[in-house]
Hints:
24% of the residues lie in helices and 32% in strands. It is α+β, with helices and mostly antiparallel strands. The chain has a 6-stranded mixed sheet, with helices on both faces. Strands 14-13-12-16-22-15 form a 6-stranded mixed sheet. A 5-stranded antiparallel sheet has the order 2-1-4-5-6, covered by helices on one side.
Amino acid sequence: MISPAGTPARVAGALDLTASVVDRAIDLELRVQPGEVVAVLGANGAGKSTLLSLISGLIRPDSGRITLDGQVLVDTQRRVWVPSHRRGVVLLAQQALLFPHLTATDNVAFGPRSKGGSRRDAAAQARRWLAAVDATELADRRPGQLSGGQAQRIAIARALAAEPALLLLDEPMAALDVAVAPALRQLLRKVLRDTGRTALLVTHDLIDALTLADRVVVLDAGRIVEDGPTRTVLTRPRSAFAARIAGVDLIAGTAVEQGLLTADGVHVSGILDPTCAVGQRAVAVFSPAAVAIHLTPPTGSPRNHLPVTVAELEPRGELIRVHAADTPGGAGDLIADITAASAADLDLVPGRRVHYAIKAVEIQIYPANLR
């Protein structure tokens, strides 16, 4: 890996975390390899912010051990606690949080100066990092003279100029205009790849995960319930949150011959994945586009007809997305994408009872929550 200075970049270290926080019901175990970018997904309250706070030193675990780049940051048994400023961790948040009284150059130079570098060397590093994020022309501006996208570029340069062993990204695109986010996302991807930086990315955005991450972990109620390559988790989700962010439907239950049985006794016919054994916890996953809606139980080829209640109708271009409640097995919101004409013909309104029909060949059954 080559740094903007033209010299070999510091090899990023591995993160190894085992931590429990009793009053937040947190019990986490996570390992991140050197140079790996891991996206952390989960609903509000799942534990994402607590994970970042544990790593950055903002909260102490009740029990656990955290190491980074071979350094023990926390060990509750040995009573080891390294303060935040000595951890080699930098947080890039939704807001740029630049020092308002400093120029862009001085903001970026802050990290090198804090490590004891001379004013001249820190300024030189700042110029190189500004060039790396295509922000050289912004060098003399103060934060009040920058747009949101420009300020976030400076924040990225400032974070990386500190040469962190681990970069924490807390929804860095969330506050940006939709027209600005794609360019900044591509920039961040390039910088992370070019520097070989180890990073944890907390996001609700599927595009962030797909564009930036090598791997995805999903948190639910303070625990990791999914962990795997980005494409695998988002195309074959095994938790309700991953299914929602991937835009697919998911029903949980127990694997049976040729399908799945929900907790309330509904049989869902589908294709069992080779890794899914009869009798184990499993999920049935299918696309909203595979769902047909009927006012009465359908006859003919569809082998699955699930009684549901229409909860909401959402326009999505030429299609209408139908959200359903009262779903089998407590599946929560099951969605169907149908044409506007079909929605009109069916006279769909919230509260109407209908039947979702899905062919068995459209439903894949996977093992649930492997971790």
